[in-house]
Amino acid sequence: MAKLKTKYVCTECGCESPKWMGKCPECDQWNTFIEEVDTKIASSSSASLLNVAKPQKMKDISMEEEMRLSTGLGELDRVLGGGIVKGSLVLVGGDPGIGKSTLLMQLSDNVAQNGLKVLYVSGEESAKQIKIRAQRMGLESDGIYLVSENNMGHIQQNIHDINPDVLIIDSIQTVYNPTILSAPGSVSQVRDATGNLMRIAKGEGITVFIVGHVTKAGAIAGPRVLEHMVDTVLYFEGDSHMSYRILRAVKNRFGSTNELGIFEMTDRGLTEVINPSQMLLSGRMKGVPGSAIIATMEGTRPMLVEVQALLSYTSFGVPRRAATGADYNRVVLLMAVLEKRVGLQLQNYDSYVNVVGGIKLNEPSSDLGIIAAIASSYKDKEIDDGAVIIGEVGLAGEVRAVNFIEKRINEAYKLGFNKCIIPYNNYKSLKDVANIKIYGVKSVEEALDIII
Prior knowledge:
Blueprint: E1 6-10, E2 16-17, E3 33-37, H1 45-48, E4 68-69, H2 74-80, E5 84-85, E6 89-94, H3 100-112, E7 118-122, H4 127-136, E8 144-148, H5 152-162, E9 166-170, H6 187-204, E10 207-212, H7 225-229, E11 232-237, E12 244-252, E13 260-266, E14 269-272, H8 276-280, E15 291-298, E16 301-313, E17 321-324, H9 328-342, E18 349-355, H10 367-379, E19 387-389, E20 392-393, E21 399-400, H11 405-414, E22 419-423, H12 424-428, E23 437-441, H13 444-451
Parallel strand pairs: 6-10, 6-11, 7-8, 7-9, 9-10, 17-18, 19-22, 22-23
Antiparallel strand pairs: 1-2, 1-3, 4-5, 11-12, 12-13, 13-14, 15-16, 16-18, 20-21
Helix pairs in contact: 9-10, 10-13
């Protein structure tokens, strides 16, 4: 009997090494190498040459628009770029209990109602458990086939027998190939299973959704090559103790990666939040210092978000700075602008900045709103309840222009706001906006004179 050879594989990037190393030379992560059995299969070069693809001239390649199928969930269609693309491979990640299986079960029911066949493969639940969840959600479509299976060979046989239009694998970490001696969930097993599913999706035109577990850091477990192999990577985010869920696309070959979908978890499953701005502002207290409303863009969708700031005097030499939902370094930079350009003495105050609703602000158009909230808390003066603040702030204290200004202003008007503070350069180029009072400002100091 031939002696088994072992190798060490990095669980983060898939780098292989003949010996264990503390630090991966490819991704620079520590203690990520695990031991696996080397199962390389020799193949003849003559056989591999039989299926070589022939190069084509780019101008001779025929183009046809990708046919998209609606999932029945408008928020999911938005994140996917307009619907499901036939033959695509989609990876869905998220914390345990966040609602990944619920989302895919609702997707299965909506697709089956359009006359398509769905094969739902679960490696963690029995078919009866899935049936109980479907009954609780009121899903009773005839076109859904359930099977509890982990063996990749058996899954392929089921796919051949049923020939589904949509395949769902829940989850990829439970699927294994018996010819590979590694345990399910290892780098070799995950990579092999994803490779087989990718060939099925592209070769047979089946849309495949796979669920991926996440690590403690929030990243999808397994080698990073897993995310490179699929067409779309979706992250389902949110606090399991709260009812709202956020769906983001971090990779999408068929659409934008800036789109955002918002759902609410109920006892009947996930329901779409059509107006997220109204949801995010629902519990807002009016007339309180340190609260400002900003207009941010998530892809093509404008959203109004409340930014809160709280400053309290400290007797310690080093004041505390904390930020939730906003970039910490950006908040510290904006506080330095307030001290230097406006003259606010913040060095003796602890500062806390919070973005309500679990939204993470990534674009710079929120700068002026954060500054206004901090200044409002410092001076203990409330900001006008009907004002929306928009603008990027530079180190010189200037307010710079932002994009999609008309969409932001129109969203503010729809929700009943009557005043917008925007950059002066945007003010000069306004064309089609709602009937709302608009102030164009050039500097932070000028903006604060209007706001507070």
